Amino acid sequence: MQCFRLPQVDFNQLILGAQVLEADSYGAKVYLLNDGNILKLFRRKRLISSALLRPYSQRFIDNVLQLEKKGIPTLKVLKHYKLEAPGMTAVLYQPLPGETLSQLSRKAGFSWQERLPDLVALVRRLHASGVYFRSLHLGNIVVTPGQEMGLIDVADMRFMRGPLSKRMVKRNVQHFARYIARERLQEKFPLAELERALLG
């Protein structure tokens, strides 16, 4: 996808009235724009890095394209920008419609036992397709209006030539378990069942 230059005046116009969804010590990282699309900023953190040749934003776009090829629902990239600030790029994208499992789990009547089979099927599909998603957690898995499960925030991802090794599957499940512990969901989420299903 072609990368377009985005002058500061146009950037300011683009984010006018936008809601900041995520920020760090450097400032805003993710904007929800007035038209419902999302603008995600990427900063090159070191002066000399591999991001000089392949910006983090391009990796994000490549991950989206790889997921699309594998038939896994995800966001839709609209434009790729190079900003005036040194080392900064951005991706404009249409979010995947639906709600995250994290959001759904807070609603009355939600049942993990009903959702677990689809969650297991998604994770198995990722592992069988060679997708290693370190940031796989309930906040990055969306249930679409068609009741499919898809992925968002796909920057932290690697694609292997074949299915993931048992070691990588175990590591992926450990990342997921740490998220459950961090969010204090151990009493609600059937982690043991998920681990048995994925690790045998």
CATH fold-level name of the largest domain: Transferase(Phosphotransferase), domain 1
Number of helices: 6
Strand order of the largest sheet: 1-5-6-4-3-2
Q: Helix- and strand-based class?
A: alpha+beta
CATH superfamily of the largest domain: Transferase(Phosphotransferase) domain 1
Q: What is the name of the CATH architecture of the largest domain?
A: Orthogonal Bundle
Average pLDDT metric: 93
Low-confidence stretches: none
* Total strands: 11
> Class of the largest domain, according to the CATH hierarchy?
Mainly Alpha
Number of domains: 2
Please state roughly what percent of the residues sit in beta strands, choosing from under 5%, 5-15%, 15-25%, 25-35%, 35-45% or over 45%: 25-35%
Largest sheet: 6 strands, mixed
Please give a structural write-up.
This protein is an alpha+beta fold and 200 residues long. The chain has two domains: 3-94, Phosphorylase Kinase, domain 1, CATH 3.30.200; 99-199, Transferase(Phosphotransferase) domain 1 (Transferase(Phosphotransferase), domain 1, Orthogonal Bundle). It has six helices and eleven strands. It has helices at 8-14, 56-69, 101-105, 112-128, 166-182, 191-199, and strands at 3-6, 19-24, 27-32, 38-43, 76-83, 88-94, 99-100, 131-133, 141-143, 149-151, 157-159. The strands form three sheets. A six-stranded mixed sheet has the order 1-5-6-4-3-2. Strands 7-9-10 form a three-stranded antiparallel sheet. The protein has a two-stranded antiparallel sheet with strand order 8-11. Strand 5 (76-83) and strand 6 form a beta hairpin. Helix 5 packs antiparallel against helix 6. The longest helix has 17 residues, at 112-128. The radius of gyration is 18 Å and the shape is globular. The mean pLDDT is 93.
